[in-house]
Design brief:
It is built from 3 helices and no strands. It is globular. It has a domain of 53 residues. It is mostly helical.
Length: 89
């Protein structure tokens, strides 16, 4: 059976500037990852969110290895279970 591929078409969207607050080390990792992937931070975040909304992982195994290295470099020791237990210093 032949699998039907979804045609890649550009969708028109409207972006807005936002003042989201985010943990400092996490932002460093995200910025470095965006640089590594040759994309903007906004494009990276949009991709992560769209994958999460569909219950999919946004990263390949190789990219996860890169992320682990960046976390080590920037001292990011947070895990998903920490997400609702963070307190401002």
């Amino acid at each position: 059976m032949k699998t039907q591929r979804r045609e890649s078409t550009k969708k028109k969207i409207q972006r807005v500037q936002t003042g989201v607050r985010i943990e400092k080390r996490m932002l460093k990792v995200l910025k470095a990852l965006a640089e590594y992937l040759d994309m903007t931070l906004g494009d990276l975040v949009e991709g992560i969110v769209l994958h999460a909304f569909e219950g999919k992982s946004p990263f390949t195994e190789k990219t996860l290895e890169v992320i682990a290295g960046l976390e080590d470099i920037d001292g990011l020791d947070l895990e998903a279970t920490d997400s609702h237990n963070l307190e401002e210093a």
